[in-house]
Amino acid sequence: MTNNGVKKVISSVFHKVASIPDNGKLAAYIPELAKVNPEYFGVYISSVNGFEYGVGDWNQKFSIQSIAKALAVTLAYKALGEQIWQRVGVEPSGTPFNSLVQLESDNGIPRNPFINSGAIVVCDILICNLKNPKKEFLDFVRDIAQNPQLDYCSKIAESEKSVGYLNIGLCNYIKSLGNIKNSPEEVLDFYFNLCSLEMTCRELSHTFLFLANHGSKLFDGKEVLNHSQCKRINALMQTCGFYDESGEFAFKVGLPGKSGVGGGIIAVHPGKYSIAVWSPRLNARGNSYRGVRFLESFTTNTRESIF
Amino acid sequence: MTNNGVKKVISSVFHKVASIPDNGKLAAYIPELAKVNPEYFGVYISSVNGFEYGVGDWNQKFSIQSIAKALAVTLAYKALGEQIWQRVGVEPSGTPFNSLVQLESDNGIPRNPFINSGAIVVCDILICNLKNPKKEFLDFVRDIAQNPQLDYCSKIAESEKSVGYLNIGLCNYIKSLGNIKNSPEEVLDFYFNLCSLEMTCRELSHTFLFLANHGSKLFDGKEVLNHSQCKRINALMQTCGFYDESGEFAFKVGLPGKSGVGGGIIAVHPGKYSIAVWSPRLNARGNSYRGVRFLESFTTNTRESIF
Amino acid sequence: MTNNGVKKVISSVFHKVASIPDNGKLAAYIPELAKVNPEYFGVYISSVNGFEYGVGDWNQKFSIQSIAKALAVTLAYKALGEQIWQRVGVEPSGTPFNSLVQLESDNGIPRNPFINSGAIVVCDILICNLKNPKKEFLDFVRDIAQNPQLDYCSKIAESEKSVGYLNIGLCNYIKSLGNIKNSPEEVLDFYFNLCSLEMTCRELSHTFLFLANHGSKLFDGKEVLNHSQCKRINALMQTCGFYDESGEFAFKVGLPGKSGVGGGIIAVHPGKYSIAVWSPRLNARGNSYRGVRFLESFTTNTRESIF
Amino acid sequence: MTNNGVKKVISSVFHKVASIPDNGKLAAYIPELAKVNPEYFGVYISSVNGFEYGVGDWNQKFSIQSIAKALAVTLAYKALGEQIWQRVGVEPSGTPFNSLVQLESDNGIPRNPFINSGAIVVCDILICNLKNPKKEFLDFVRDIAQNPQLDYCSKIAESEKSVGYLNIGLCNYIKSLGNIKNSPEEVLDFYFNLCSLEMTCRELSHTFLFLANHGSKLFDGKEVLNHSQCKRINALMQTCGFYDESGEFAFKVGLPGKSGVGGGIIAVHPGKYSIAVWSPRLNARGNSYRGVRFLESFTTNTRESIF
């Protein structure tokens, strides 16, 4: 499909989805997120050929939340290689994002790095292997995004910490099972900061473009992950990126991706493009209501899925 | 990669994997399958451009077993459209292929059509909608494979029925939960026949080529599934095709596919090719030991995964 | 409390409970049971001192259903001793009577002999150890009840078999896990007959009097179980006799007992008496609504619980 | 049985069990408990008739640990009555003492007050209803024990807090599900102190004698719980007092009771006596190895069980 064709599809699908009643709900359990204007809706696409296009509120900052988990596992994988899979699995969980059931039967090894327990273990791995994890992680994100302005939002991080009983519970529970090496306080502090990263759709799309480019940054050609590692991160996003809606997202959209409770979604077409969508209201499974609908129509109309 | 390049990779990976000790085990619980020579090993690829190539025992018939579940759900989807998803889900199960746990909490709706419970419900759907389900299903498979010789193996079907306590248990249990409409005997008879289908690697590769061709048969161009439906079946195979090893298969191989306890695996690269591998010994999660290893090396060396 | 005191409490509690709206529901899934007049309500007590007393419909036959499981495990225990606990556990299940979850994690060993799966395994044990299990079991029950007229009801047995998908499922599932030695058909035929036993409240109270008499029949003093075995069967009824309401029954009533979906309950005060209650409508957890309420008031007013 | 008969049984069973190899293991996860001499073994019985008798190390202080949960729920029940059962259940859990699985499916309502999660909720209830919970709870225990010297052990409480990841995890998890009203720190501080109570076998036996005396203190006749409430606490100890060994303890011993990881067990024969046993090594399910064996032989030989 031509660039103009893609623009037309994006624009028409965007307006169609914007006109449908939004049945989603804001993530009310995090005080700061509950204050966001729920009407925001933005889309931004960046292709490996240099094509870029945005509609709606693509230039508005938002909290990327769990989308940052994909960046954390990328940095851990880059730093340690295959041994990280001894501490976190690569299988879909079949259960909601905050489930403790499988930790209990799997001796503290989370099913994958995209459920909360898995991301918490990834944070612990990074703390073990970086001198200044919060700074080095931020440097890493700024580098792949070619954007030194990207930053954590301390207000969001504090807001989450103040009500983060579930994640405190998860982290201490995994610690009791032996799969957290550092103090729960330190791990959680890193985790809550990670989730507080803020980006616009454009920035988010740029940040993830290396996964569409077989692991290398487009702007300087330098390798973030090698071809095989990049394949694996994309595969993980495909099978596990949307909690217990991962199967349905693959089924309807057909692209690897990752969502966050801030209403953001990043999706990647390996070899082609990355596309960021943001709309704050969430469906029953915690993924952006409009975001999922937009991407479903986008890949159906462009026939641009990987399947 | 050129056709010759693919041939070279297939040939060299085949010989490398053949030379590694095979740590798998025959599916001993089905008497007839336990009699198969465990040393068989064959591969066959068919591309949408007409390229074909096989190595090893690609011309030897074997029992495709659960691979037939992908054909059954295709026929059901073709016949009834989206309403089949009211009776069977599209999410990975996170549990072994024969798990009953989720049926209990999900009121008899199996997580996906590729675990045993899901395939049994698909059989029930087909019986409700076809006059002569065993004959019509076989006609369908013969048509997409362009091969009127394909057939069930009654010896295998009988062998499975004689020890099929688990599937009898599953079917009656789902019946008690209201998601089987016909008699368990009739449903199970169809199910055991379905799983007894026999093919060579070449035939298997031909049969699934329509899924690499966006839903249409290559030889006559006729549509089996439309573009969107084909995407969805491929996505389902990606997220659910390998039981509780689905995530790892996506991670290592990066192609949608389906395995069977006979040791066969079919994998599909949408828009490009279908590839069948067969080696009878199974790994701990019930998938062909050599088959998975072959495909992992194949996609790593050719860089021909979807991710 | 004097015999007259007990009579007064029974009579007054009976009329009080009879006057309260019955919020229970008939066990509608078994066609024959659904035909029973739901207004029946009877009570009968027999003490080891020879005191007997009944009110309401105590002389009306009803289907004792799962109450028979306590008789089956008694006969198996008597015949084989402690080795039966290798095939069925003695722990409360924490889940509804028909749960399959724990079978899966416990390799086919049911948690206790009073959930369906456990009773099915007990039937299998009896078939392995008796020449003519249906006849010998009936002879055993007639002997401890001193009543040669007691019998199975073939109409009920057939009715249950016709809709017994769940039990067929359970039995085949346990067979697949290796804890059923005979054919599922034979085991289920015995099981459905067992559950079809019919008794009046008076007969039921007489049948279980040996458990109040430390294991020996009152009328001839002969030992059915020894003192320690009797203690164990009573303890099992206390912790497991009421499915996932066992804790609440112990809490409110404070007597070991066993219920059936026919609306019958037998409760035993070791060293003192056995009391049978029957009222067909069941509460949400499958135990007689009026039966539980009667026994709760009875032990509270007489202070005659074991705790 | 005469008092002399009971003395003889206790003495002979004590020496028999003491001579058998102790296959249990110290609760190594709490540093301070791991330092205890594992050879300690003591027994003390107190009857409602004033009979008392002890053998072995009955006058040695030990950490009663989870046995204190029975005192905490007694005080909460006394203070609030039946409404406490809206926040904690009365059913056996069917799972180990620290399981999180059921919390997840039961929305934060622990199955019973004797698993850790349940005791943590009871602590929260007490904090909501007492001005100075730590002091008032201690006053309550000193009163029923008629012993103003009883006290917490701050060394043990600190030791548990330092490694209490599991309980921190549980408390925060329940908080996230809405069933903890105070701050997790405050609840856990109370919980760890509660578990640090120290008593000798004699003191433990005296403390629980009111449960053998239908709810009233023996020494002054004052009611702690009324007859019906006392029945209920005893019933709860019977069905839930020994984690996932509760069924087996009822089966083998036949008395309501409660165990702690310090190796103590209290058992109560309603209307007759309370008996405390202490031996630090634990069996696989976390209950005193020698303690369970002693009580089994004691009730078998005296025929003094409730069943």
TrEMBL record, chains A, B, C, D:
EC number: 3.5.1.2
Assembly notes: Homotetramer.
Name of the gene this protein is made from: glsA
Protein family per UniProt: Belongs to the glutaminase family.
Organism classification: Bacteria, Pseudomonadati, Bacteroidota, Bacteroidia, Marinilabiliales
The protein's name: Glutaminase
Binding site for substrate: S66, N116, E160, N167, Y191, Y243, V261
Gene Ontology biological process terms in this record: glutamate biosynthetic process; L-glutamine catabolic process
Recorded superkingdom: Bacteria
Enzyme kind, highest EC tier: hydrolase
Alphabetized GO MF terms: glutaminase activity
SUPFAM superfamilies according to UniProt: beta-lactamase/transpeptidase-like
HAMAP family, per database record: Glutaminase (MF_00313)
Catalysis: reaction(s): L-glutamine + H2O = L-glutamate + NH4(+)
Bilayer-spanning residue ranges: none
Keywords recorded for this protein, A-Z: Acetylation, Hydrolase
InterPro entries with a match to the protein in the record: Beta-lactam/transpept-like (IPR012338), Glutaminase (IPR015868)
